[in-house]
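Interim report, section 4.2 (structural modelling).
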Amino acid sequence: MQLTLYYSPGACSRVTLNALEALELDYQTVLISLQAAHHKQPEYLAINPNGKVPALMIDGQVLCQNAMIIWTLHRMFGGSRLLPENNGSPIEQHEFLQDLCWCADTFHPMVRQNRAPARFTTGDEAGVREDGVAKLTEVCERLSPRIGDGWWYGEQWSIIDGYLCWGLDTATNGGFPIEKFPVMQSLADRARQVPSMQRAIARETQVTVDG
Ligand SMILES: N[C@@H](CCC(=O)N[C@@H](CS)C(=O)NCC(=O)O)C(=O)O
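Predicted structure of the assembly:
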């Protein structure tokens, strides 16, 4: 099976990289630098017409959207390495899809409001940032008792923790005061030290097509 990940360093493609590393899969990477606008080039738009990273090509078939890529990888290779093992009914598995979708469609936009507020408005970005800080503050306060000194699902690390780590780090780079939320700061610090995340971050620095 041939797997190729299209990614940009520091972007949310890091979460898919984290998943590929957690699964110890063999894959190639292709750098799609957002800074250099590679994602707007016709060659990449032919792969993902939405012009976003990540995209994962599996034997010529393109998969887009972090949450769904991770769900597909979980179903193909996961066992309990990305999400807690659950061979239950669609309703029992719903929790995992719900959590992945929350990361992608609720958490990710508020992270971006902190890191790149200007992209949400043609006017003054200060209000967008303020709203992003307020939303992420509510999330950090609400999640802290759940996380404690563990992970999203308790004792077992999951890719949701990798997603949270990427998002919290990105928001912090945009000025979000993570130090006000020690539980969430600790989660990000611990998730960044997980070997699969360390390998993912290292892999991002390989700037050529590799394999
Ligand atoms: N919902 C998509 C979001 C993907 C996304 O927004 N990726 C960003 C990087 S974090 C991107 O490619 N941005 C390029 C742009 O919007 O111009 C997913 O989860 O895959």
